[in-house]
Design goal:
Radius of gyration of chain A: 19 Å
Number of helices of chain A: 8
Oligomer: homodimer
Shape of chain A: globular
Largest sheet of chain A: 6 strands, antiparallel
Helix content of chain A: 25-40%
DNA sequence: TTCTAAAATTAGCTGGCCCTAATTCCTTTG
DNA sequence: CAAAGGAATTAGGGCCAGCTAATTTTAGAA
């Protein structure tokens, strides 16, 4: 009765699964409108697709409540995440893409490449663990290490941390951050912070900076010992 | 009134245009059934699409006669041919694909890559003129040099030629040919030929071979001086 | 010149996936 | 606890691109 995973997923289905994966990262199940906003679709379109996908066993739908990926759905989603991140890494490493331009290219290619090509790229790259934004790359078998980093907004004043991950795919934000040296690997000290979601004063690799709260919240850092 | 080329073409449309381009290489206009066979579709599906494409100005359709690409349609088709051949060349050069496995990968990717990525690949390859099968690669501006080669079946006995192009994308044929050293660049002498589409006796880079007529017809050669 | 077979087209459907408008369901608050 | 407001769903369409079956056109053979 359970659908065996032989049937190929359409581009749309792959997008839905990946979206639901991202929206469920914090554990709660994803709502129809939430998915609709993420994919820039109307909510009724999502209801319809969600119905089809639960019938296929790719997700669990409790009407009026929300959806969660099944094991099968999660496997398919992680496969897309791996593809996307390997592609981004390869395009930056070998084909002169920058981290602010690579997202949309990978977004299209992830639906078209074969598993073989992805594994060849991964091999050429030495099986990287993270992509250019610091996002972890799932293994080919579907396991992923979501490391626990601290948003820069929660780093205590005076503490010095290493920037590990930049949690956005908006080209303009990424460009701005890159111009200010805020890339994975940067050493950042929080010199001061204004209240009420105010700007942070930073020292970035020896240079003083002021950074808005919204952007700072996207910067995930490894603190010296705190876990 | 003429459609400006702003609107993006669907995957299907790109496939139709490319198919019609290939089928029209010999000058005659392509028939519905011919296109249907090439794309593995039913003839009525082709009639319908052809109607839409002529309305869009991508091709000229004379009902019950056949179709031809318009200038606009040819431009779009050549863009796809360029993409396909650059991709094949890149995948073989950098990602360990062999000429018998690369076709289907390129067939999917050609619809997903950006112009930017294709030009980066072309640059990395040094702007190659031909792909791994010896097929000419159109320029970015859409000009293509279809060189006049002679099928091996028409090379006179005793003549020695250079194999330049292998005109098939069937993986099994390509594998067989590769195993027998029959790749672009090989030096081939026609030692003998049997009548009635019989096999050819060849000397391939110093090794004796017998090759069936059907395969020999796919091997396009540069003759010493003949044109 | 007429007949016939092949080629092409038309008629009528289907499935996937999107939409807007209308309705139903939940939850929260007055 | 009832009503409101937002979230979700249902109802009803549309477009794309494929299909089969039936029909029309063309061209070649008798």
């Amino acid at each position: 009765m359970t659908a065996t995973h032989a049937e190929t997923l359409t581009r749309s289905v792959e997008d839905y699964l990946k979206a639901i994966y991202h929206l469920s990262l914090d554990g709660h199940s994803a709502g129809t409108t939430e998915i609709a906003n993420f994919l820039e679709l109307a909510p009724p379109s999502v209801t319809g697709m969600v119905k089809r996908l639960s019938e296929q066993g790719l997700l669990e739908h409790v009407p009026y409540k929300g959806v969660q990926l099944t094991t099968q759905g999660r496997r398919a989603a992680l496969r897309m995440v791996r593809r996307h991140r390997i592609l981004e890494t390869y395009l930056v490493a070998y084909l002169h893409f920058t981290w602010d331009t690579v997202h949309e290219e990978a977004e299209r290619l992830e639906h078209a490449v074969s598993d073989t090509l992805i594994e060849r790229m991964a091999l050429a790259l030495g099986n990287p663990r993270v992509d250019p934004h610091g996002d972890p790359i799932p293994d080919a078998d579907g396991s992923i290490a979501e490391l626990l980093y601290t948003p820069l907004t929660e780093v205590p004043e005076g503490e010095s941390v290493e920037l590990r991950r930049v949690d956005t795919s908006h080209a303009d934000r990424l460009r701005y951050l890159a111009e200010h040296g805020l890339r994975p690997g940067a050493r950042v000290t929080v010199a001061g912070r204004e209240p009420f979601h105010g700007p942070l004063s930073l020292d970035v690799d020896g240079t003083g900076q002021v950074l808005g709260y919204e952007l700072a919240a996207l910067l995930l850092c490894a603190r010296p010992e705190a876990r």
